[in-house]
Structure formats: C-alpha cells, structure tokens
Write a structure and sequence with these properties.
By secondary structure, the protein is an alpha+beta fold. It has helices at residues 2-19, 232-253, and strands at 45-46, 54-57, 73-77, 89-97, 101-109, 117-122, 127-135, 139-144, 147-153, 159-167, 172-179, 185-190, 199-206, 214-223. It has two domains: 1-13 and 230-254, no CATH class; 25-224, Jelly Rolls (Sandwich). It has a seven-stranded antiparallel β-sheet, with no helix packed on it. A seven-stranded antiparallel β-sheet has the order 2-3-14-5-10-11-12, with no helix packed on it. Helix 1 packs antiparallel against helix 2 (232-253).
Length: 254
C-alpha cells in the first residue's frame, strides 16, 4: 500500500509539472476561464464608441504547454458597420519588470484580411514592442525599431502558439511561433525605444478598426521565468509511471 501511495504522489507531482510548469505567473485570468459572458475578469475593456467587442467563446486552444486544457477563450470581433468605430482594447497591468520577461499567448484568426490585430507589451508611457497577427499579406510580424518584420504566413481558423522573451535592458527579443500540429518558427531582433527599461502592461487591440474579421485569444501569460515545455523523456516517464501505478493497483485489488 505504501508503494502504491508513493507512486500516486509521484504521478500527481509529475502531472502537475507537465500541465502547468510555469509558477511565476503575473497575470490574472490569462486563460480566460474566470468569466461567463461580456468582459473577462481582470481584463479592462476600452473603446471610444460602440461595443462591447469581446465575449466568452466555447472554442479553446489545443495548446497546453503553459496552461492545462480549458473550455473558454475570448473572441474579439470588428464591427465594420459602426460609423465611429475606433480601436477596441483588452488590457492588463502587472508588477513592473526590469529584467527578461516571458510572454506567451495563443490565437486563432476568423479570416485573413491583411489588417492587423496586435499584442503590445509596454511600460505605460511608450510602446516597447508590438506583435501583429494578420499583418498585410496575412502574416505574423513584430515591430523592430518601428519597422515591421514578417515571420510567417498565417492560415485562418488555425490555432497558433507564441512564446517570446523580452529583455527591456537591451531592447532585444527572441521567440517562436508554432501552428497547431506544426513546428516552431523562431524569430529575434530589437524593439522600439522606450521611456524606461521596464515592462508592466499588455494590450490586445484592433490596429485597423472597421475592416478586420474576428480573433480568438487564449492562454495569455506573462512570467518571470522561462516556459518549461516537458521534454519527450518526461512524457515517456509520465506514461511509464501511469503503467506502473495501474499494475500496482491491480495487484492490490486481487
């Protein structure tokens, strides 16, 4: 029985590590599971007119390298018929960070229009850097010292996972973007000038209002430690532990 209990504890600990290895999370409700309709908790919504443009959506990201599997995402849509439509935003502030900060999110575009949906990381005074989804030509791109750098072509209705490390002291970044059932595409470079060497806010916004379609966001994270995707050996170990645990339980039940 003791051996069975020890195996159980080890398996539980390993499964927790595998499903959510990042323990230095700075955001609240980053996986958008803590709301039922309207504005997601901890994500203030801003828009000069019209709206709201966000809602709970039952489609969730298939990626589980940062958060465990959930049931919600947030969908933002563009009201092309709104006569005075301006930039809509969801934003969240976090503790001021002066060292390398790790940002991650998943997204899915409803259609490709070549008009940007953007994720911006800044210092509340000036924009540090911006990542564009559906940049002209249906690309994922980032801003490098005020110039757009294209990384890869996107496909509508496909989930993508982005991880990026931002160093506010050197104004450099390095990251990857991975399509669902695809491989990582790396990118790196510098980013725009800032008023200071820190980051403390993320903003999700509609860069070109009135002409976009829809975008879903899920599993948004800002962390002080690197994301730890389990190595293949860890996954094999977890599967082996599960097999041993099942065998031990069967012997005890005889």
């Amino acid at each position: 029985m003791r051996r069975f209990q020890s195996l159980s504890a080890a398996l539980i600990a390993l499964s927790i590590f595998t499903s959510h290895a990042n323990s230095a999370e700075l955001l609240t409700n980053g996986n958008f599971e803590l709301f039922t309709s309207g504005q997601p908790n901890s994500w203030p919504y801003g828009m000069a007119s019209g709206g709201p443009t966000n809602l709970q959506d039952g489609t969730n990201s298939p990626f589980t390298s940062v958060y465990p599997a959930g049931s919600n995402s947030v969908m933002i849509w563009d009201l092309a018929t709104e006569p005075n439509y301006t930039h809509s935003t969801l934003r969240q502030s976090f503790t001021n960070q002066t060292t390398t900060t790790y940002v991650s999110w998943d997204f899915q575009l409803g259609a490709l229009t070549g008009n940007r949906w953007s994720v911006q990381v800044d210092d509340s005074i000036s924009a540090l850097t911006r990542f564009d989804m559906d940049a002209p030509g249906g690309k994922f791109a980032f801003q490098q010292n005020f110039a757009s750098v294209e990384v890869m072509s996107l496909v509508a209705n496909l989930w993508y996972h982005v991880e990026v490390a931002l160093d506010p002291t050197t104004h450099t970044l390095a990251g990857t973007i991975r399509p669902q059932n695809g491989l990582d595409t790396p990118f790196s470079g510098g980013f725009g000038f800032a008023a200071g060497n820190s980051v403390n806010k993320v903003i999700l916004y509609d860069e070109t209002p009135g002409v976009n379609a829809t975008i879903r966001y899920d599993n948004f994270s800002v962390s002080t430690t690197p994301y730890q995707v389990p190595e293949p050996s860890t996954v094999i170990l977890l599967a082996s532990a599960a097999g041993v645990l099942l065998a031990a339980r069967r012997r005890l039940c005889r």
